[in-house]
Give the backbone structure.
Amino acid sequence: MPIDFLLNILVAGLLTGLVYGLMALGLSAIFGVMKVVNFAHGDMMVVAMYATYTLYTAAGLEPVAALPLVAAGLFVFGFALQRGLVNRFINATEHMQFLLLLGVAMVITNGTLMVFGPDARNVQLDYAFDSYNVGPLIVDKVRVIAAGVAGGTALLLAAFFRFTVTGKAIRACADNFTGAQVVGLHVNHLYAVTFGIGAACVGVAGTLLLLITDVHPHLSTDYTLLGFIIVILGGLGSLGGALLGGVLVGLSEALSGALIAPSLKSMFSFGLLILVLLLRPQGLLGKQA
Amino acid sequence: MILEVRNLDLYYGDAQALDDVSLDIAEREIVAIVGANGAGKTSLIRTIGGMCRPARGSIRYKGVDIAGQPSHKVCELGVAQVAEGRQIFPNMTVRENLEMGAVLKRARAGKRGTMEKVFAMLPRLRERADQAAGTLSGGEQQMLAIGRCLMGQPEMVMFDEPSLGLAPTIVQEVFRTIRDLHDAGITVVLVEQNVSASLKMADRAYVLENGRVVLTGTGAELLRDEGVRQAYLGL
């Protein structure tokens, strides 16, 4: 096997993996702060993809230009979902939360099915097949854009949690719920903001992924599962872990797709998951429970 | 009276935690609340602080009924607590912990100045400002909890078991700090398992038993009371 070929596959996998990482970052942030597993995460992703598709076909807006709009829309959606529904179940048992979010997921999947039908859709960009030649590498332009924006968004998010008062207050809620109440933080509001941020992350990831791949309504379950794999690989609640997990899954998908068979790529992602669960159950960057 | 609690009932499910509790706290007083484990002391503080919703009764702070109001609204009025178990943010730095005490609107503007005052009063916190709070010793964590509470510029502070689990010399330091705060004009509510120390310090005290107020008087009166001496002081 030529080494150039392998390198190209690795780079493509790495770049796609960063977008996966951003998607998982949203899931991880929501879980890390309020211990709610967002079973509608993949559905939010698909909603973002269709929103991007619609903005492009109906309004001629390029996906990259539509990013802020989609992110803002998903933020509002996530915020409202938490405030209106999830918050009522915040102290309920896990299976009640699971059923609630599964219900939301089914409504979204079937909603997109009704509106857009079952066929795969994509955006036809004139730069879709442009690429950069770097030495022996041929790198797709769309992947570079997607990975760059995903990485940038992740950095922004890290800065938000580290430097802003709201970001620190959200970390405080995650760190000690009672403590947050004691100092008078508006915990419900901060939870809703966190859900909004998680949704915005997955929104950005969805828009970026539409640069690379098609969308159809039943992708949602795949992406929810993919999000879980990534987050568990990296360590639940660890933001760096989500990115690392995303990159690993991206690489594994690209390698198994090219070297063995594309239809087997999920098998290897799940294989990775099982390996990590056996050898390091808290995840690669997770803290010991 | 700065705080008037009337006929407060609180339930956890079917279990009654507070039963017809009434008490008054005057401005700049130190009021101790004593009682055995499970008597309802912490429940009372949590209810006043807005973390539990009472089934019946009223809690008036400066004439405003705050019963059932969420904690972020109660804190905004200047009612603060140093909770049982300190409840600091272990994975955040000492400085970030203090900042979280000043997210309240009432405290936001003067944040920098307040932090300087807190550092001046509790110099160990300045030394450890950029250290994760979880790495502090128990006594330091208690000082951090007190400092964080002061960041909110409170008028009344409810201390829940501030000396629990601390070495005797540090306990004295905690009590001295509470006294200093009182001298600086803060109204103090003190829940303590260290009954004799808290009664000596208190202007007045209430004894809780099974969620009810069974005795009240000045600190000195209760220290002389035969029942209190037998039940809580082992004399």
